[in-house]
Structures are given as structure tokens and as C-alpha cells.
Amino acid sequence: MKKWLAAMMAAVLCMSLLTACGSTVKEEVTEETAQTEQAETEETTQEETSAEDTAAVSEALADGVLNVGTNAEFPPFEYVNDAGEPDGFDIALIKAIGEKLGVEVQVDNMEFASLVSSIGSKIDASIAGMTVTDERKASVDFSNSYYTAVQYVILPEGSAIATADDLKGKAIGVQLGTTGDFIAEEIEDATVSQYNKAVDAVNDLVNGRLDCVIIDKNPAMVFESKFEGKVTAVDGAQFNFEPEDYAIAMPKGDTVLVEQVNTALQELIDDGTFDALVSQYIEEN
Ligand code: GLN
Questions:
Q1: What CATH number has the domain bearing residue 77?
Q2: Count of domains forming the chain
Q3: Are 267 and 160 found together in one domain?
Q4: Which of 46, 13, 53 has the alpha carbon at shortest distance from 263?
Q5: Cβ(179) to ligand 1 under 6 A?
């Protein structure tokens, strides 16, 4: 948010607060005036605050720029488009949030595993199909969840793997530092190979170096069509994997930023923008 705009909004808020307080201490007002003033005060209180109207300004937005980290290896949520730019559902969503907040959004494409530790220093926030976990909550605060997914298991065509038991002792590919990685580490006797790019894991699966890849539902489905006839993506519910919620991660304790982002997110849900992005980026894939 621009500094002058923030200052102006703060001034306007102070003035309206003074007016509101003033009306409560005035003793000798005519009944009519009192009623009018009361009505006006109610109107002010009832007026919905929009994302940009929030009086307090997060430090992260003070320079008018929201620096957002992502890992553009996770289609359809984030990928590098033909123009070489990070694109996808998450990128479009955070840009729409930035617009609501009146700030410019700059996207930094980095390794998924370094996102959480960079929040509050190198970046202001991250949007990366990131699952809310207790471990991550110890270091960052999350927005309200905007998507529910589950881990999928990508198998080579004709694989006999069908249950949680079948995964024991297998060679499993995952993306480094993801919830798929954490799940795989828990599987008895499994040999887990961690990749920076999920597509490299799928390539190794196709080349016979892995028995399966564990990755989130939507990228799994994108890879299934990209490697059509060679791999199948199986719902993780079949392997007893639990649903996961995606949210935007922000610096721990920056309640102002979290509140502003949540308000903007809700506005985008209410005005239909969110659903339009879901059909544009997720359902068409
Ligand atoms: N949802 C998974 C996680 O949070 C994977 C995210 C990703 O690879 N971008 O760990």
C-alpha cells in the first residue's frame, strides 16, 4: 500500500473516531440531531470494511510491494509459462489479492524447501500450494485455507501397487520438503528419493528408476495427462492419506497482514473472481 494513502486513511479514520466519540459526550442535543447522529454512527459501523480500508498497515506492505515466494514446478497452481514467467492459479490469486490491497505483487521463483525459512526476510509471503501443517505453523502464520487437496500416488502403467501395505519397501519419488516427502519418510522400508522438480521424479518413474511418486492431487493429474499411457494417478484416499488444506504463508505474528489477506480473499470469493480462477486454471486441466 502506498504510504501517502495509508497516512490519509489513518487520518480519515481518526477524524471519524473523533466525530463518533464527540456525539456520545454531547449532552444538550435535540432529539432529532441525536437520532441523526446515531444513525450516521451506525452507518459507519455497519459499513463493510474492504481489504484496502483496513486502517493498520502491515510492515510488509509499507513499501507498496508484496514480495511473494513460490516454486513454479507445481502445475496447475504454479508453473513457468511460455513467456518464461511464473503463472498458474496461485499466481493469479495472489495478484488479485494484491490488487485488492492496492500493492504491486512481485513473484520470486525459489526452491519449495526454502520458502518457509525465507518468509519475513527474503519474501513477505509465499503461495505455493502449501499445505497447512503444525510444523510450519511453528514458523509462519497462514491465511484461511483456499483449497483442499490430498496426496496422490503416481504409478507406472500396469503397476500392482494398490494399498498402503503395497508401498512398504518401495522406491518412492517425492518433491523435497513437501507433505508427500513427509508421508513417504514414514513408510516402512521405503527408499525415498527427493527431487527439487516433481517432473524429474515422474521422468525417473517412467524410466523405471522408481516404483511410484507421491505428490498432490492436481499436479498428479497434470502429470498423468502429460505422460499419457505411461502413468496412472491414484487417489491417496486408497492409501489412507488424509486431506490437506492449502493456504498462504506469512510472517509469524503479522496479524495485520493475515487479516488484510483474508479480507481480500473473502472479497474475491464473494465477487466470483475466485471461482473464475478455479475454472480457468484448475478445472480446465
Ligand atoms: N502441498 C504440498 C506441501 O505443502 C506440496 C506443495 C508443493 O510442492 N508446491 O508440502
A1: 3.40.190.10
A2: 2
A3: no
A4: 53
A5: yes
